[in-house]
Amino acid sequence: MSVFKAIIKSIRSNMINIIVYFSIFAFFGNITARANVTTTDTMFEEVTMKVAVTDYDNSNISKAVVSYLKDTQKVIDPQTEDTQTINDNVRFGIYQYAIIIPEGFGESLKAGDGKNELEYIAPGTSASEYLLTQKINDYLNDIVIYMENGYTENEAIELTHQQMVKLNDTKAIVNDKSDENHRSFYTGMFTFNGYSMMMILCICVSTALISFTKDKDVSNRISVSGMTFKKRNFAIIGAVALFGFVLTTVVILVIHLASGEYANDKLIYYAINAYVLMFVGLGVAYLFSTITSSENLINMLSNMFIISMSFLCGVFVDIQFLSESIIKAAHFLPLYWYVAAIKFINNTATSKIFCKQFGMYLLIEILFAFAFFAAGMIISKKKEQYAI
Amino acid sequence: MSEKIVKIENLVKRYGDKLAVDHFSLEVEEGEILGLLGPNGSGKTTTINCLLSLLTFDKGEITIFGEKMAPDKYDIKSKIGVVLQNVAVIDTLNVYENVDFFCGLYITDKTLRKQYVEEALEFTGLTEYKKYKPRKLSGGLLRRLNIACGIAHKPKLIIFDEPTVAVDPQSRNAILEGIKKMNKQGATIIYTSHYMEEVEELCTRVVIMDHGKNVANGTSAELKATLMNRETIRISLPGKSEKIIEGIKEINHVYKTKEEGDDIIINCNGGEHNLVHILSYLTDNNVPFGRVSTELPTLNDVFLEITGKELRDKCS
Amino acid sequence: MFIRMFFYKIKEISRNRTLLGWNLVFPLVLATAYFLGFGNMIKDDPDAFKTIEVGYVNTDEENSPFSLVLSSLSKKNDGIRVLKVHKFSDVEDAKTALDEDEVEGIYIEENGSVETIVPANGLVSTTLNQIVREYENGKAVIETIAKDHPENVMNAVKMMEINKSVLKEYDFGTNTSPYLQYYFALIAMSSLFSSWISTRMLEGMCANLSENGKRFECAPVYKLPSIVAGILAGVVLQSISNGIVAFYVEKVLGIDFGIPLLNVLAITTLGSALGISFGVLIGSLCKNPNLLVAIPLCFSMTCSFLSGLMWHQIRQLIEYHCPIINRINPAALLTDCLYVRATYGKTEVYYRDIFTMLIIIAACLIISAMFLRRRKYVSL
Q1: How far, in Å, CA of B64 to CA of B73, rounded?
Q2: What is the DSSP letter of B127?
Q3: Given CB atoms, is B83 within the 8 Å cutoff of chain C?
Q4: Which of A105, A3, A111, A95 is nearest to A60 (CA)?
């Protein structure tokens, strides 16, 4: 019992690490999962964008453009007049599009001299940029065409507006049948968990494991104690497994509590996958604890290995953006299979998840966990043999 | 009369409510090896830290080489060498570089420094290890490196704070011999230790500190002379009787007897031929006796007599 | 003495494997991970417009007006080809293609009206729907004019065909990828890690922090010049380390910062000085040796995180909601300086960032000097 307690206490002394990574998970995992969540719809809905509008003109036409944007998009205040800051806000996604209506724009449009053109700032040549530019251009062109062909300014604006309202009835038919096109909240959170849980397990468990070995005298004192090798190791494994189990359970509970309206009936499968990942985390932690007895080195190794693995296996960047060779290489990393299992759960109907393929993903993760444990055991045995 | 190298007058240092050094005074003369003894927590290290201006103090005055000591008295500092209780070396530098680095804080002339560093390495027997990093050295070698770093610049006053802790007898001997040699070469030495036999062998004078005070001061012989018990005699007396024991107690200088199994332990408070007198008494009374041993008092006895036998280590 | 101390500090720091690991190897590994993770996204913008594969079933006449719209959108215009049309003769075939992800949507034209079928809501479906709306909008405009001003119909049709652009994109010159932000934040992190160098250095010079410090303070040397020598050694080493990282990213990984390498080195040297001076400040204020590792680590990681090390948008988000944090966060200043230099050149903001960093360096060093001078006697 004393070894068990000592390991639990050692893990508890890493509370700051646990809190930091858990907060990152609970806060940023939540934000990114919420930002990327989409659900199956049968009704067509237009994508609306955040558009920052600066109107220096205040003419009827400029007001009409702003009102049109307010009706169809989410218009916000750019909070600055500096174009570089506006550009940065667009590039970093604070808003997706910005328009600057220069003074004299309305008059210039009517005159058709192209002097004071409406300027927009968009993030490169993107689909959203194309779409919105097209929409605004059409709207303004309609006004110009009406005005050039016998209508007053007010009539032109009114007609264009009515037309746009009417056009809202033109809707695509959504033939949304599978979950494949969507990323559930659970998928987002559990994917991020691949990083945070592995970090917590690696750092906390490794440092707890080396607490017995980093000081040679302490290690010797334990070796010469009356406690058998078997009993001691059972206590260590028990303590570490208990911590892993509690951590994973808390993670699952937090995800479930945070899911709210996004909850679905697949939680149990995500949970099984997370528990399996826990073994991988413990395996890596054990391996690290046999490689070195320096806390600093463990911290460095964990950061390097887990952050790199997260980037390569689709935790931080969706796997579709990775090159093929990277994806091939990622097959040799456990997080890849964890993420693959999450994708599988996401894309498969609940009744069909429990199948051979899902089992295979879990089995590969377990094999990785075993491989890490085995590597750790070989290293520790060799170290003992050669008294390193 | 020899010059006073160190003069501490009425030094007082408080840590909050706790009085660590209590009106402590001390004088060290040129060429002396002064042993500063005291139980754990008696104020030795605090005194040394005050002496080196590493620590402020509440009252008193410290003079070294005739000048008042202060943190910016660099001319005084340049003549002092310190060998700290804990090994203080730089892990990433090798043995030679460590000694060179610390010596360089005192000696700016490159050629002279090179000579001093090599002399220090030879003096501590580290020449063949000069390319080694500290973590590759054994405990004894590391202690020797600690000493080399403290003395390479040939200081006139060297302070050794328990330099032989966790050192094997061979290394300890080498260190003690080295200290004697340095002293012969003209260095004045302040030496603190818990090993009484070391102090007895090395020091020309001993000061015992307890509860921050100077409780005893003198040569080893002078201190021993202050003890009541001057000789302890142990005799195996299988056929002893009350009468015989009473008879022994009557012998001149015997002030206490104690029975331990067949043995009798006799304490004497003076005299030169106590054993002869006791054995004559036994022979005269036809009392058969076995093994006989006699012990003169040690510095350890003086220390325990003055500071008491209760345990001192407490959490501060 | 100064030069000797400088070279000894160079030797001491450069041989410290822990520092070498965190300050050089860790940024190199992270840079490689970034490269493998999203290196291609820096070179090719992931948000760039991709031609939409669309199925088209037309049961009306072959050259219907809508089919003309589709063929005009299938041509490259301003470097964008909006649609790639796959013609199907049968609606069922088109739907099968949609199910098998061969097309991203289907247009079915029947009796003059166009129906759009999409697999899910999103940008692609909105774009496909918008094309139909534009087509119907055009029809509506002509119909309205034909009703009210029939004499102008031809003119209106002509104008519609020209479809004059009345918008213009604001031109900022270069267009660096926002993903470069990760690399800039990485350099900032590695620069701030140098605060360890200085806390470690002070640890070895202050009697209350280490045994070496006791030995140092017993020696007849002035503390301040020794600390300055140590600071210089730290800056030199951290600059070299940052230089290696920048060189590795630019030349080995082939990611162009859009800044001349010498300019990168100059900015990162300033960053190193920033990290070192923060370390000196922490070292002079903090008396607990254990915290001398924890504080710089937490400080560096928090500042780097807020400058975009793990989430590239965060710095801009702070800029939008609470810009003052970005003005005082050293990692954000360094990141911003690199970003502004890469995107807009040497603008006022670039110089403002440099100036702020210089002020922070000076402030840290002055405050530290005051504390270290006051601490003539140490309290052990």
Answers
A1: 10
A2: G
A3: no
A4: A105
Q: What residues in B contact C221, CB-CB < 8 Å?
A: 74, 105
CB contact under 8 A, C220 and B87: no
Q: Report the distance separating Cα C88 and Cα C106, nearest Å.
A: 9
Name the helix (H) or strand (E) containing A92: none
Architecture of domain B231-296: 2-Layer Sandwich (3.30)
Per-residue pLDDT at C380: 47
Give me the architecture of the A50-167 domain, per CATH: 3-Layer(aba) Sandwich (3.40)
The encoded tokens of residue C348 equal: 């006022």
**pLDDT digit string (tens) for C187-228?**
999 899 889 888 888 888 888 788 888 888 888 888 888 889
In this complex, do C220 and B78 lie within 8 Å of one another by their Cβ atoms?
yes
Strand partners, A100: A54, A119
Q: Boundaries of CATH 3.40.1710.10 in chain A?
A: 50-167
Residue C119 has pLDDT above 90, yes or no: no
Select from A38, A40, A171 the Cβ nearest to the Cβ of C129: A171
Burial B65-104 (b: 16+ CB within 10 A, else e): beeebebebeebbbbbbbbbbebbbbebbbbbbbbbbbbb
B105 at C interface, C-beta within 8 A: yes
The class (CATH top level) of B4-225 is alpha beta
Report the residue of chain C nearest B74, measured CA to CA.
C220
Report chain C residues whose CB lies below 8 A from the CB of A137. 163, 165-167
- Residue A198 pLDDT: 94
DSSP state of B139: H
| Average pLDDT of adjacent 10-residue blocks, chain A of 388 residues | 80 83 85 76 76 91 90 87 88 88 87 80 76 86 87 89 81 70 85 92 90 69 70 84 94 92 89 96 93 85 90 84 84 94 90 90 95 89 69
Q: Model confidence over C254-299: pLDDT tens digits?
A: 888 888 989 999 999 999 999 999 999 998 888 777 778 778 878 8
The mean per-residue pLDDT over the stretch C4-31 comes to 89
What does the pLDDT look like over C136-183, one tens digit per residue?
A: 888 888 888 888 888 888 888 888 777 777 788 887 766 678 888 889
| pLDDT for residue C47 is more than 90 | no
**What pLDDT digit, counting tens, does each position of C68-94 carry?**
888 888 888 777 788 888 888 888 888
Specify the domain boundaries for CATH 3.40.50.300 within chain B. Answer: 4-225
CB spacing of A308 vs C98 below 8 angstroms: no
Q: Which domains does chain C have, with CATH numbers?
A: 2-44+178-374 (no CATH), 52-162 (3.40.190)
Min Cα distance C40 → chain A (Å) is 8
Q: Are C107 and C52 in contact (CB under 8 A)?
A: no
Which residue in the set A92, A149, A322 is minimally distant from C312, CB to CB?
A92
Contacts of B124-133 with C-beta under 8 Å, sequence gap 24+, read B124/B148, B124/B174, B124/B178, B125/B174, B126/B95, B126/B99, B129/B95, B130/B94, B130/B95, B130/B96, B131/B94, B131/B95, B131/B96, B132/B94, B132/B95, B133/B91, B133/B92, B133/B93, B133/B94, B133/B95
* Cβ of residue C149 closer than 8 Å to a chain B Cβ: no
Tokens of C103: 């097309």
Which residues have C-beta within 8 Å of that of residue C223, sequence separation ≥ 6?
C205, C217, C372
Average pLDDT for chain B: 87
pLDDT digits (tens, 9 = 90+) for B17-36: 888 899 999 999 999 999 99
CB contact under 8 A, C219 and B53: no
Nearest chain C Cα distance for residue B69, angstroms? 12
The interface predicted TM-score (ipTM) is 0.79
In angstroms, what separates the C-alpha of C224 from chain A's closest C-alpha?
30
| Total Cβ atoms within 10 A of residue A215 | 12
Residues C292/C282, Cβ–Cβ less than 8 Å? yes
CA C326 – CA C353 distance, rounded (Å): 10
